[in-house]
TrEMBL record:
EC number in record: 2.6.1.52
This protein's encoding gene: serC
Chain ranges of the Aminotransferase class V domain: 4-347
Family: Belongs to the class-V pyridoxal-phosphate-dependent aminotransferase family. SerC subfamily.
Protein name: Phosphoserine aminotransferase
Protein residues bound to L-glutamate: 42
Enzyme class per UniProt: transferase
InterPro entries cross-referenced by the UniProt entry: Aminotrans_V_dom, Pser_aminoTfrase, PyrdxlP-dep_Trfase, PyrdxlP-dep_Trfase_major, PyrdxlP-dep_Trfase_small
Pathway the protein takes part in: Amino-acid biosynthesis; L-serine biosynthesis; L-serine from 3-phospho-D-glycerate: step 2/3
Record-level Gene Ontology MF annotations: O-phospho-L-serine:2-oxoglutarate aminotransferase activity
Taxonomic superkingdom: Bacteria
Taxonomic source organism: Sutcliffiella rhizosphaerae
Length: 360
């Protein structure tokens, strides 16, 4: 089989052992004589997969009992609508921090529902850093932020601390499960699975029970968080195969040593790449401000567009996949989610060094 180094931004690399386990079980899941995809979502066998995924997520992320874990669909993009539909009322104001394209999209959906306020933004800096100086509106419904900006390669190190009555909502699509997070400081976390959690199809939501009580009763059933909480995310047919894959990824994370190990490894991988960029004497330029750099998406440019194209072309020939920057910003981006190995990052650094020597 062709050797590839997968740096895709999402859907992204999955741990090899997880794929192998899924392959082993594919035709005959736990002696049922069926694939997990063929099981009824009301069967005992599927139920155990569902519960395992939820319990492991709670265990690994240390989710307190005051929170619910929900499995939804529609990706993070549907959460952009679900959040204001549940929590933005005629008498309050949704607060958004703009740190990149995904937060802009989240705001755009909220503006269709009610009054919104931009509490902070780094748009004027080309989204090269995490915004500071948050100014909340009066009567805020919540404050929404994007914890890792997949396109611009910036990431919140620490989350803002808010007054007790203001829920913090975080889109953690591209850095959930990559590091320890203070769940108690965040009222709602959501993430599409296709970066660190598994294949696309399931969207994980971690919501405080306190916020859950505030869901607007007129929210359509399938967008109302209470529907999922009250029915163990089994009100309708959930994406069973994606949840099964999620359970395998979570088992893998646990076997690796949990978030302490994962976080340390992610640091090493990111440092390796940022070092290569910083030591390149300007041949490679990191596009994010140093103190805002993401440990998940390393974004950089080369001196000219022609060199960037040549770099991407030669990288592809050597088996490096997914290094082109997002179509909105161009340049290069190495997405180094949990399943991307240190070896892949070392191979990329070696390629970058060689490319620089041959093209300076
Ligand atoms: C931070 C962030 N938010 C939202 C999205 C949109 O996710 P989805 O495609 O699951 O709707 C993405 C996708 O890459 C993302 O990186």
């Amino acid at each position: 089989m062709k050797k590839v180094y997968n740096f895709n931004a999402g859907p992204a690399a999955l741990p090899k052992t997880v794929l192998e386990k899924a392959q082993q079980e594919f035709l005959n899941f736990q002696n049922t004589g069926m694939s997990v995809m063929e099981l009824s979502h009301r069967s005992e066998e599927y139920e155990s997969v569902h519960v395992k995924a939820s319990n492991l997520l709670k265990e690994i992320l240390e989710v307190p009992d005051t929170y619910e874990v929900l499995f939804m669909q529609g990706g993070a993009s549907l959460q952009f609508s679900a959040i204001p539909m549940n929590f933005l009322h005629s008498n309050n104001i949704a607060n958004y921090i703009l740190s990149g394209s995904w937060s802009e999209k989240a705001l755009k959906e909220a503006e269709k529902i009610g009054n919104c306020h931009i509490a902070s933004s780094s748009k004027d800096k080309g989204y090269s850093s995490i915004p500071s100086a948050i100014q909340l509106s009066k009567n805020p419904a919540y404050l929404h932020l994007t914890s890792n900006n997949t396109i611009f390669g910036t990431q919140w190190r620490e989350f803002p601390v808010l007054p007790a009555n203001v829920p913090l909502i975080a889109d953690m699509s591209s850095d959930i499960l990559s590091r320890k997070i203070p769940i108690e400081d965040i009222s709602l976390i959501y993430a599409g699975a296709q970066k660190n959690l598994g294949p696309s199809g399931v969207t994980v939501v971690i919501i405080s029970k306190q916020l859950l009580e505030q869901c607007h009763k007129n929210t359509p059933t399938m967008l109302n968080y209470q529907t999922y909480a009250e029915n163990n995310s089994l009100y309708n047919t959930p994406p069973t195969f994606s949840i099964y894959m999620l359970s395998l990824v979570l088992e893998w994370v646990k076997e690796q040593g949990g978030l302490t190990y994962i976080e340390e490894k992610n640091h090493q991988k990111a440092q390796l790449l940022y070092h290569a960029i910083d030591l390149s004497e300007g041949f490679y330029t990191g596009t994010a401000k140093k103190d805002s750099r993401s440990f998940m998406n390393v974004t950089f440019t080369l001196p000219t567009k022609e060199l960037t194209q040549l770099f991407l072309h030669q990288a592809k020939e050597k088996g490096f996949v997914g290094l082109a920057g997002h179509r909105l910003v161009g340049g290069c981006r190495a997405s180094i989610y949990n399943a991307v190995t240190l070896e892949s990052c070392k191979a990329l650094v070696e390629f970058m060094d060689n490319f620089q020597s041959n093209n300076r």
